[in-house]
Amino acid sequence: MNILSGWGARARGLFVDNKGPWGPSGSGGDEPPPGDGGGPWGEPPRKRGRNSSSEPGPTLDDFLRRSRARFSGGGFPGRPDASIFVWAVIALVLLWLVFTSVHSIAPAQRGVVSRFGRYSYTLQPGVGITLPSPIDRVKKVDVDNIRSADLGGGTDEDLMLTGDQNLIDIAYTVRWNIRTPELYLFQLAEPEQTINQVAESAMRAVISGVTLRDAMGDRRADIEIQVAETMQRILDGYRSGIQIQGVAIKQADPPDAVNDAFKQVTAAQQDAKSYINQANAYALQITAKAQGESTAFDKVYEQYRLAPEVTRRRMYYETMEQVLGKVDKTIVEAPGVTPYLPLPQIQRTEKKGSAQ
Amino acid sequence: MTGFIRNRPIVSAVLAVVVLVLLGMSFPIIPETQQAVVVRFGKPVRIYNEYEPGRPIGAAGAGINFRLPFAEELVRIDKRVLDVDMQTQQVLSTDQRRLQVDAFARYRIVDPLRMYIRARTEDQLKEQLRPILGSEVRNELGKIEFAALLSPERQGIMDNVRTSLNRIASQYGVQIVDVRIKRTDLPDGSPLESAYDSMRTAREQEARSIRAQGMKQAQIIQAQADAEAAKTYAASFGRDPDFYDFYRAMQSYRSTFIGENGKQPAPTTVILSPQNDYLREFTGRPR
In 3-state terms, what secondary structure has residue A140? Predict the structure, then answer.
């Protein structure tokens, strides 16, 4: 077991950082004390000092030194069977070859192959075969996955200045994906931060060209398109390999501090609408009434013209009948007589009271 | 060979390690994202994978390169587009209004040797570029009016910033790809408050004018309707004013004493004189 784990870790350790079980405590206590430079595995201090000047030197060297100490100390209590050792190494190497040279690339992914650090080619979806790991390395990049970055809004107000020098609080989402994976990997130091900054810059530039009213309502779609185009142009200028799929404005509001004033405008619009509605209703009513009355008059007048005197008297008597039939009447014979007026009034109120 | 390894495993292991280390040191791997300056005892001698405009990715340069172990040192410098963020600057426009500006620049180290000589590390380079960016932005934006400050791109102002920044940056072996204003804000305190105030009053003005417009339209509609009705009445009643007078009087009596639409008028007592025209026949006067 010791052999296997030791060699496995050693093989891995050649290519990854020295972060295995090789901490100082794990080296089994067989390590010679630092002062003992005479042992066969002791480090000449001169060499150690010089190695530390170059970057990969000290880690690798350090690691090898410790692993050697472990091997010769705790790893081989007696001489093990050599064939087991050889077979284990061969098996590990084979496994290593298989795992690092066959890559399955998902449909949404591309595999960017770099040979000794230099970009070589890009693997398409499916199974791709490359040289084993230290030579070829494959970085899988998800190209179809559309990522989104939410900008603005949130806890702190993100105020932008509009062309008419008003402030607007705007929140928007940028959706993007990777168009050219090798450019994306090798051209930009911080792609996501770049996208955020470019988005903010583009949005601000576009907003500063429109009025507050346009930004809040009518021209939102227009603004979204313009921002996406501007972003794409800038990012193409960086050769970033990023494709902007779209920009969506989630919210474009006046800042909180002046929101009440904006609500007043809405209220005023509704008020104005209701004034006009009332006026329209009045107009309909008044014209209809005029038409009705004049038509009625016309009809009666047609008949009146046929026999003016009779019609006039008839109308007079009919009206009087109806009028006098409904009211209390007192006929006073001669001038100078004061009639006892309240009498019929009292009679009627009494009648009313008993009826109830 | 195998015999030697068998007999002296420790010595052979040490040898193998030494060979590996020497190989690793002699043939450094330079990834696509880096360029490297080879320094021999402090003196730069070669550059690997130097940036050249228009060269496609994967061309010669990156990959395995060579250096003399121990004698030469490899300084790795980023090849990608990097960014430097300016501290927020207060810019004073020509018409004496203040604006807080936040800008960023994207740059690429195109001459790693010069950059190494001038700034040594990328962090130091960034530290030196940042104040330069800030002062350039302030200088250029200070030459224009407030209204133009809001959209500096359109006026080509940012191009000016880029050009003048490039002039300085090229001394560091740096090419400025792009300078952009990230945000322009009104400073906190009175400028922001006054902007809010002006927005508020503008809205109040708008609200009032909307109401007034609504009232005006309502009045016009009503007056038109009244005129229409008057016209209709006049056309009809004007044919016989005398009969209209009588007809309307009859209507008026009815509505006054009987009530219209089921409405009861106040109780009325009518005192009639026998001389009343209605009672003319009541007196039984002779014909």
Answer: strand
Rounded CA gap, B100 and B173, in Å?
30
Quick one: tokens of B42? 């402090």
Q: Are B92 and B101 in contact (CB under 8 A)?
A: no
Q: How many CB atoms lie within 10 A of CB A78?
A: 5
- Alpha carbon dihedral B250, B251, B252, B257, in 10-degree steps, equals 90
Both tokens of residue A116? 């000794």
Q: What's the pTM value of the predicted model, to 2 decimals?
A: 0.65
Rounded Cα distance, B50 and B62, in Å: 9
Placement of tokens 């130097």 in the chain: B50
H or E element in which residue A129 lies: strand A126-129
Q: Which residues of chain B are within 8 Å of residue A273 when distances are taken between CB atoms?
A: 214
**A-B Cβ pairs (cutoff 8 Å, strict):** 299
Residue B243's alpha-carbon distances to A294, A338, B247, in angstroms, are 13, 37, 6
Tokens 């030196």, residue located = B128
Q: Give residues 22 to 41 of B whose Cβ lies within 8 Å of A.
A: 24-25, 28-33
Question: What's the DSSP call for residue B212?
Answer: H
Residues of A in contact with B177 (CB under 8 A): 237-238
SS3 B25: helix
In chain B, the residue whose alpha carbon lies closest to the alpha carbon of A343 is: B269
List alpha helices for A71-106, DSSP H: 82-101
The mean pLDDT of B77-95, rounded to a whole number, is: 85
Indicate left, alpha or beta for B195 from its phi (over 0: left) and psi (-120 to 50: alpha).
alpha
Q: What is the pLDDT of residue A64?
A: 57
Put residue B271 in one of left, alpha, beta given phi > 0 → left and psi -120 to 50 → alpha: beta
**Distances from the Cα of B118 to the Cα of A41, B48, B127, angstroms:** 43, 18, 12
The Cα A15–Cα A7 span in angstroms is 13
B258 vs B100: which has the higher pLDDT: B100
Closest CA relative to residue A196, chosen from A144, A162, A248, A148: A148
Question: Rounded to whole angstroms, what are the CA distances from A105 to A100, A128, B286?
Answer: 13, 7, 127
CA distance A19 to A78: 28
Please give the pLDDT value at position A109.
87
**What pLDDT score does A63 carry?**
59
Task: Compute the distance between CA of residue A193 and CA of residue A30 in angstroms, rounded to an integer.
Answer: 49
Interface ipTM: 0.71
Nearest CA in chain A to B177: A238
Helix axis angle, B122-141 to B112-119, nearest 10°:
90
- What is the Cα–Cα distance from B20 to B27, expressed in whole angstroms? 11
Taking residues B44-71, report their average pLDDT. Answer: 80
Residue type, A29: G
Which parts of chain A sit beneath pLDDT 70? 1-80, 153-158, 332-356
Q: Which two tokens stand for residue B115?
A: 């950059």
Query: Which residues are within 8 A (CB) of A216 and not within 5 positions of it... i.e. 6 or more apart?
Result: A168, A252, A253, A254
Distance CA A203, CA A227 (A): 6
Read off the amino acid at residue B119.
A
Cβ atoms A214, A287 nearer than 8 A: no
Chain B residues with CB under 8 Å of A198 CB are 180
Q: What angle separates helix A2-15 from helix A56-70, to the nearest 10 degrees?
A: 170
Q: Can you tell me the distance from the alpha carbon of B42 to that of A173, in angstroms, rounded to the nearest whole number?
A: 50
pLDDT tens column, B168-208: 889 988 999 888 888 777 777 777 788 888 888 988 999 99
